[in-house]
Amino acid sequence: MQLFRQRPTEHPLSRLFPTIVTVLFLAAALVLAGCDNDDDDGGMGTMPDPTITELAGNASNLSTLAGALGQAGLDDDLNGDGPFTVFAPSNAAFQQIDVNDLTSDSDLLEEVLTYHVVQGEITASDISDGQTVETLEGETLRFSVSNGGVQVNGANVTTADLQASNGVVHVIDGVLLETVTTTERALLTPQLSTLTDAVVAAGLDDDLNGDGPFTVFAPVDAAFGDIDASELTADSDLLNKILTYHVVGGSAIEAGDISDGQTVETLQGGDLTFSVDGGTVRVNGIEVTTANIQTSNGVVHLIDSVLLEAATTTERAVLTPQLSTLTDAVVAAGLDDDLNGDGPFTVFAPVDAAFGDIDAGELTADSDLLSKVLTYHVVAGSAIEAGDISDGQTAETLQGGDLSFSVDGGTVRVNGIPVTTADIQTSNGVVHLIDGVLLEATTVTERAILTPTFSTLADLVVQAGLDDDLNGSGPFTVLAPTNQAFLDALDANDNGQIDGNEVPSQSQLESILTYHVIAGSAVESSAISDGQSVETLEGSDVTFGVSGGTITVNPSAENATVAAPDVQVSNGIIHGIDTVLTPPSGSN
User: Which tens digits make up the pLDDT trace of 437-470?
Assistant: First the structure.
């Protein structure tokens, strides 16, 4: 007897049948609805891939490329059947070059753009390390693959395998410019605009478009801010000389091929000298900041200074903004041709600010004096670098007098004036910048004329007819009252009198001035002792006091302080004092 009625065997899918029926019904309904929609709007089937031109036009980060393709007339080509592979520079990539200069030259634009296009479809997975492919432009692209990243001519593929109906697009982060010439590469590089203008002004653009190969050390725009670019471009011969000194002909020298101490001859004829330290390459001491920019006819290296070693001493001064006063003086003295000569010369060049301490108008007004002062800054027959100078060394100048050097803690001084910038190399010597004018070759009278604080004294010396005497062989020690000292000595309430007396006569003036002169010796401050008395040219004595390092003159009378001791001149020494001395004889 069966306790339970046995159920018929049930198929496992029988329970799902109503659900399946429902799904099929809904699917059929959707199909029918789709058919109805096709009848209504012409169909909404799968959209076809865009062409390469359309893809570029629709991508916000490829708008610059799309515009360039249209301007070059290549948009229709890249709408064609293909297939093509395009390495598409992003908008950011185009910002690294001068797009205006690129698009303004239709031939150059077409050349650059077709160099980014390969016939046939190449996906990222098809690319192998070291592979090369020919472009529509005719030259080849070089690939590298590392850690899954793909580079083309060193530019990174940032977005790969954008599919188009007629090929594939890979977005890259640089514009590929290896097919352009050296001149064209400079034209397209924003930081080389000044160099490009200079090359065109010198008529060298066609030369650097030639076969080459060339190696160009290209100063960036900021480098020209350190020189007087207007003076450079104003002299076509000088411009040509400087620019060709930046070019090595006959070889494309990459940074990795340069060895420490290597030299190469330039198109100008002079040599460049290289140093290599820890991977940093320098040319004539200037660092190569961006190396190995490839072009169709060579290689370009960016540097941040203009190489001026091919310039002569005169030309170097002309091109140095802080030497403009010196340059004008050299030309005024007719010494520019001399300093353009073979040399070698060592020039201690006062910067513009140094001439603010002297009366430059008085200097340039006297051609003989000007020549004397300038030639005293030049040592002929040798190019003396700072490292070759020893403490206590002397060197004879073109003027005939000697310069004296001191070296202390690496600081070199010439006649006590520090060398602020040393070892500026030129084709015929070396230049050292100094911040003072060397006046030791001048006489007492000349030194007073050139010193603004002694201008009143200089005028009175001329008025008294003593200028020729104080230009003599000497030696003299002159106690020189400053302009302020003479002003203090004038009593305005007594109608322009000196120390309560009427303005002196010619003989009285001569007596006062000669009382400030010790003849027969050049007495330095270190040789003066307290209580010392010496006879003056006037005939009376002056007495010195020394206390705590301060020297006074006639301490019991005028008590004049020696404020500026030991001003050296060719025929003696000058001590600047702050008070006018009165001869005890009362001759004033």
Answer: 999 999 999 999 999 999 999 999 999 999 999 9
Query: Would you tell me how many other CB atoms lie within 10 Å of the CB of residue 526?
Result: 9
Q: Please give the Cα distance from 349 to 347 (Å, whole number).
A: 6
Q: Which fold has domain 313-434?
A: FAS1 domain (2.30.180)
Which tokens is 106 given? 């239709």
Which residues 6+ apart lie within 8 Å of 184 measured at CB?
108, 177, 209, 295
CA distance linking residue 61 with residue 365, whole number of Å: 66
Local structure of 335: helix, strand or coil: coil
Cα separations in angstroms, 315 against 68, 117, 324, 422 = 44, 49, 11, 17
Q: Tell me, what amino acid is at 141?
A: L
| Two structure tokens written together for 547 | 């206390």
Amino acid at 92: A
- Yes or no: say if 273 and 265 are a contact pair by the CB < 8 Å rule: no
Whether this model's pTM surpasses 0.70: yes
- Fold matches, 52-172 and 313-434: yes
Query: Which CATH number does the domain 444-577 belong to among 3.40.50.2000, 2.160.10.10, 2.130.10.10, 2.30.180.10?
Result: 2.30.180.10
pLDDT, one tens digit per residue, over 264-293 is: 999 999 999 999 999 899 999 999 999 999
